[in-house]
Amino acid sequence: MASFPLLNKGAISTEQVAEYISLASTDPSCGAYSLFLGQVRNDKIGNKTVQAIEYSAYEEMVEKENQKIRNTIKTAFSDVNELIIIHSTGIVKTGHLSLFILVSAGHRDQATRACRHVLEMIKENYPVWKKELFDDDSHRWQ
What we know:
α2 (59-76) packs antiparallel against α3 (108-125). By secondary structure, the chain is of the alpha+beta class. It has helices at residues 14-24, 59-76, 108-125, and strands at residues 7-9, 32-39, 44-45, 48-57, 80-93, 97-105, 128-134, 139-141. It contains 3 helices and 8 strands. β5 and β6 form a beta hairpin. Strands 1, 2, 3, 4, 5, 6, 7 and 8 form an 8-stranded mixed beta sheet that branches. The protein has one domain (7-141): Molybdopterin biosynthesis MoaE subunit (Aldehyde Oxidoreductase, domain 3), CATH 3.90.1170.40.
């Protein structure tokens, strides 16, 4: 299996997505790949609009949490072969990708359920924080 970065400086490009999928899809025992792409939305909060999100991460803890997620998923879903999580750091403008999750498995049910579980674990415990940047130059931490 190819090596993938855990963190990506800035937005995750569509070229990177294609490359990661291509590198990950070489195992003939896999019958399913479930993919989640997280994109920054232009949410409206009161009379302000989100223009970008600035992500910061505790890199050493990202590695530990990533391994914990991998272990949990591979224990809970015996059919999962591979799991890739890549999260952005720095500023990502609205309409651009900030999260990439790919789960490969022998069968679609395990791939899709595992991908959803990975996403929930990331939202709950991943040591990445976001600061929403608004169109009036204000911000708020989420």
